[in-house]
């Protein structure tokens, strides 16, 4: 599936790839939430560098992880966003909740 997780003592990096739609978002939610609950990281980085397509399910994916991380005072960083995906994330208001790193595709 389109996910590689890198777990460090204080952080988790989720490398997403391929298409993020209703079906894959469900899988991603389950896997990322499981790792968050087991490790209680202070930081979750979601790397979109290898994502080829994303519908509104991607926004929901980020929002749900934000809520989960906020429960323990953690933060989310989005990285590797292409210009269109970054624009969609900002229109959805996510830049007020998560940190969006520049330098995507």
Radius of gyration, taken over Cα atoms and rounded to an integer in Å: 12 Å
The portion of residues forming beta strands comes to 25-35%
Helix content: 40-55%
Q: Total strand count, please?
A: 5
Topology order in helix (H) and strand (E) letters:
EEHEHEHE
Number of helices: 3
- Which strand order does the major sheet show? 1-2-3-4-5
Distance between the termini: 22 Å
What structural class do helix, strand and pairing data support?
Answer: alpha/beta
Q: Which sheet architecture does the biggest sheet show?
A: 5 strands, mixed
Shape: globular
Uncertain stretches: none
Mean pLDDT: 93
Question: Quick gist of this model?
Answer:
The protein has 105 residues and is of the alpha/beta class. It is 40% helix and 32% strand.
Give an account of the 3D structure.
It is a single chain. With 105 residues, this protein is of the alpha/beta class. It is 40% helix and 32% strand. It contains three helices and five strands, in the order ββαβαβαβ. The protein has helices at 22-39, 56-70, 83-91; strands at 3-7, 11-20, 43-54, 75-79, 99-100. It has a five-stranded mixed sheet, with helices on one face. Helix 1 runs parallel beside helix 2.
Write the layout of secondary structure elements.
Blueprint: E1 3-7, E2 11-20, H1 22-39, E3 43-54, H2 56-70, E4 75-79, H3 83-91, E5 99-100
Parallel strand pairs: 2-3, 3-4, 4-5
Antiparallel strand pairs: 1-2
Features of this protein?
single chain; 105 residues; alpha/beta; five-stranded mixed β-sheet; 3 helices; 5 strands; globular
């Amino acid at each position: 599936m389109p996910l590689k997780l890198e777990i460090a003592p204080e952080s988790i990096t989720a490398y997403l790839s391929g298409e993020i739609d209703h079906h894959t978002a469900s899988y991603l939610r389950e896997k990322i939430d499981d790792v968050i609950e087991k490790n209680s990281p202070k930081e979750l980085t979601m790397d979109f560098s290898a994502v080829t397509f994303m519908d509104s399910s991607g926004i929901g994916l980020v929002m749900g992880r934000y809520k989960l991380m906020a429960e323990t005072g953690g933060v989310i960083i989005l990285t590797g966003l292409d210009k269109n995906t970054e624009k969609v994330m900002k229109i959805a208001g996510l830049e007020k909740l998560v940190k969006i790193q520049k330098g995507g595709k």
